[in-house]
Amino acid sequence: MAEFWKRYPAIEAELSRVDAIVHDMLAGAGQSFSGPLRDQYQGGKRLRPGMMVLAAHVAAGDPVPNRLFRLAAAVELLHMASLIHDDIVDDAHVRRGRATLHRCYGTRDAVLMGDYLFGQAFGVMSELADTHRATPFARAAMRMCATEIGESEDRSLSIRNYFRRILGKTALLFSLSMSLGASEAGADRITEERLRRIGYNVGMAFQIVDDVLDYDGAQDNLGKNVGIDLRAGVITLPFIYAARNEAKLNRVAGRQSWSDSELVQVIRMVHRAGGVDRARDEAERFTSRARREIARLPVTPWREMLRDVSERLARRCA
């Protein structure tokens, strides 16, 4: 999905400005760290900065404020930092089709790289954003960290807990990106709130689909191993739904030691018990909510682009 925005040349062109800003920031990490961080960034989808820029256009048309691109870069750096730390906690081997940073450079250096990105993100936000914008950014960072802590402790089969977790893990940053984009473009309160809700629903659907693909995807086109959540003992929605129909799954919930054959058996069990299909339906429910909110926006080419983006993200489960 690194080429996701190629279909939208106007957004792709503006994301090149975000790319330049990010690369300048990463250069400050020093010779040892800047190269690995640039490689990590190059493999990314840039969904959050893209959604921020798109939200600004939906709210105000053309052009968007120049400082928006630095704020978009800050959001992407926050996201990158969270992925690096997430990979360390999960001891993940692959990210975006490449070996994870801590596997290549060691945990110490990977932690330092993540910390550098957090610092850069907050530096930009404190420089450019007023309290109205900076406070939600800080709260989002805290919620993301709290979610990571909670994920390592939560082995329950609670759907409510799962939704809370993916809100902090993914949907919150999608929502923040879109509300920041709208706010920076001078949107009225109703439009900003509507775009925030769209970001929330798109983000929730996106993470559910990502969790479905952990049971249903192929490593060569996703850049991650199928079953990586299971290996880490992380309980996601397909497993939760399947466990309601298959008692054997309750006994292995949260287990972190698997042979390859055991993992394949559990994945097949989750499919047979209907967990994958029900999770796909849940992703569609959130996408439908986003679709309804988008339909309430003024009719413009930017609105239609936003609709197409949300639909494409949801179709990743196909």
Architecture overview:
By secondary structure, the chain is mainly α. The protein has one domain (4-317): Farnesyl Diphosphate Synthase (Orthogonal Bundle). Helix content is 76%, strand content 1%. The protein has 16 helices and 2 strands. A two-stranded antiparallel sheet has the order 1-2. Strand 1 (94-95) and strand 2 (98-99) form a beta hairpin. Helix 1 runs antiparallel to helix 2 (31-42), helix 8 packs across helix 9 (189-216) and helix 15 packs antiparallel against helix 16 (301-314). It starts with 8 loop residues before the first helix and ends with a helix. The relative contact order is 0.11.
Please give the order of strands in the largest beta sheet.
1-2
Q: How many individual β-strands? A: 2
CATH top level is Mainly Alpha
Helix and strand composition category: mainly alpha
Largest sheet: 2 strands, antiparallel
Query: Fraction of residues in helices?
Result: over 70%
The structural domain count equals 1
Radius of gyration from CA coordinates: 19 Å
CATH architect. name: Orthogonal Bundle
- State the shape: globular
What is the fold-level CATH name, i.e. the topology? Farnesyl Diphosphate Synthase
